[in-house]
Amino acid sequence: MDIDYQRCVFDYAPRDHAARGGQQARHPVVVVGAGPVGLATAIDLAQQGVPVVLLDDDNKLSAGSRAICFSKRTLEILDRLQCGERVASKGVSWNVGRVFNRDEEVYEFNLLPEEGHQRPAFVNLQQYYLEGYLHERAQELKGLDLRWCSRVTALVQHADHVELTVGTPDGEYTLEAAYVVAADGGKSTVRNLMGLESKGRIFRDRFLIADVKMTADFPTERWFWFDPPFHPGQSVLLHREPDNIWRIDFQLGWDADPVAEREPERVIPRIQALLGKDAQFELEWVSIYTFCCLRMDSFRHGRVLFAGDSAHGVSPFGARGANSGVQDADNLAWKLRLVVEGRAPDALLDSYGREREYAADENILNSTRATDFITPKSEVSRLFRDAVLQLAKEQPFARKLVNSGRLSTPSTYAESSLNTPDTDTFKQGMRPGSPAADAPVTVQGDADWLLRHTGNEFTGIYFAGTAHDDQVFAQAEAMARDTVPVQTLVVAAKGKAGPGMFEDSEGLFAARYDATPGSFYLLRPDQHVCARWRNFDQHAVRTAVARATGNSDVETVELETEHQMELA
C-alpha cells in the first residue's frame, strides 16, 4: 500500500546548540530547501562522499500534484540517485501526444519514436511521490543531515565561508558552510536575504489546474485542445496521473478572479462540460497560476549557488520547471564535490552558472514561444495561430509551427569551456556537450543498459576491435588511479565481447555514438560528453579531464598520478 506522502509530517529534532557562541564546525555544503531540487542535490553530494546539511523551513512534503511530468533525462538522473525505478514503476509512462483544434484532431506526435531506450519519453507522477522517494533515499545516506523546521534568517558571506543564521522551534543558531546551494523555490528566502531578484516577463493570463479522481477510458497520452466546444475561446490540457487521477488545465483569461475560480461551484461545471453531465468524479486538488518566465542574472554569487525555481522560473506547459531544476542539481553536485575535495579549483563552479544560465535561457525561450502561441496577444497573432492549426491537419510543415508547449529536452552545452573540441571527423553521434545516449547492452549474457554504468566519476567508453586493444586496456587501468580518475567501459560488437566487456547486442551503441573500432568517448560525472576521438590517446584523455575540471596543467596532473603510484 502506498504511503500518503501528502500527509507525512516529519518531526523537528531538537539539537544541542551550546556551541552557538563558540567554535563552529564548518560544513562543506549546506543546501537550503528540501523540494525535489534540494533533495536531489543533497543526495548526489552525499552518495559521492560529501557531507551535506539540508535545511527546510517546513516539515512536510508538497501538497497537491504540482510538477507531474518527468522527462527521460530526469529519469536517468534519478536512476543515478537510485530513485529512478520507483518513479518509473509508480508513474504513468507516455510517449504520444495529440493536438485538437475545436473538436477535430489536428495531429499526433511521438516523443520517443525509436526502440532501445530503458526509459520512456515522460513519466507522469505527482510531485509528492517524487519528494517522498527522494526523502527515503536521503534517509539511507549517513552523510546527509536533513533538518526540518529550520529557516534561514540571515546570511553573511566571508572570504572562505558563508555564515547562516537558522531559526528553529527552540531558537536560533549559526551554521558555517564552505558553500551554500539555494534551492528554496520561486520565493527564495536566500535570494531575498542577499538583495537579489529574478527578472523577466509575466504573461497576462490565468490558468486553472484541477486534479480529478475518476475512472475514464482516455488513453495514456497528452491531449491538448485549442478552442474546444466545451471551453470555447480558450485552451485545455489533459494528462493522466497514477491512482486514477487526471490533471486538467483550463485557460481562464486575465480577467478571471483567482479566488472565485478555485471554488468547487466554478470548477465542477468546467469539468462536466469536458466529461459530460453524468460523469462521476471527485476533486483532489485545485490551483490557479499565472504564466511567467523569470531568471536571476547570475546563478552564482560568491559561495552561494542558486538552483531550480530560486534561479529561474517558466510557465508549466512544456514540463520545464522541475526537470530543469533536477538537471541543475546534476550539473552542480559533481563540480562542488571536486572543489571541496581540493581536486578542482573554485573557478570550476563558474561553469555551473554559465551552463545552466544557458539552459535557463533555452527553456525560457521555448516557454515564451509556447505561451505566445497558446494565448495570442493580438488579433494578427490569433489569425496566424488559427491558420497554422487549420493547415496542420493536412500539411506536415505546419505541424512544426504548432506550439502547445514544446516539451522539456536536456540542454547541450555545445559552447562550454569544459569541452574538448573535436579533432576527428564524426558523421553523427554525440558532440561534446551532449547528454550521453543510452543503449541496450549485454554483459556475460545478461541484458543491461549502458548508462547504468556511468556517472558520479568521469567515464571513458571504448569501442574495441583494434590490434591495440591490450595496450588501451592497460593505459585505461592506469587512468583509473589518476587524481581525477577515469573509469573505462569497453564495448564490443555483437559476438566479439570478451570477459568484462559490454556487447553491443542490438548495434545501437555503434549507431548512436557513430562508433568504429578504436573510438573513445569521455563522459563527465553528469553523463554529458566532454570529448571524443576516433583513436584512444592517453595523454589526450588526461588533457580533456584536466580541461573539464578546470585543471589546465595536465602535466602536473600526470606527475601527481605517477608520484601516487610510486608511493603505492
Structure description:
- 29% of the residues lie in helices and 27% in strands.
- It is built from 14 helices and 26 strands.
- Strands 1, 2, 8, 9, 10, 11, 17 and 18 form an eight-stranded mixed beta sheet that branches. An eight-stranded mixed beta sheet has the order 6-5-13-14-15-12-16-19, sandwiched between helices. The protein has a five-stranded mixed beta sheet with strand order 24-23-22-25-26.
- Helix 1 packs parallel to helix 7 (321-340).
- It is globular, with a radius of gyration of 25 Å.
Summarize the structure.
Among the domains are: 5-93 and 121-198 and 298-370, FAD/NAD(P)-binding domain (3-Layer(bba) Sandwich), CATH 3.50.50; 440-567, Glutaredoxin (3-Layer(aba) Sandwich), CATH 3.40.30.120. The chain has helices spanning 36-47, 72-80, 84-90, 127-139, 189-193, 264-275, 321-340, 348-374, 379-392, 396-399, 469-479, 508-513, 538-548, 554-567; strands spanning 26-32, 52-55, 69-71, 92-94, 96-101, 104-110, 122-124, 144-147, 151-157, 162-168, 171-182, 198-213, 222-226, 235-241, 245-251, 282-296, 300-301, 304-306, 312-313, 440-443, 446-449, 458-463, 486-493, 502-504, 520-523, 529-533. The chain contains 14 helices and 26 strands.
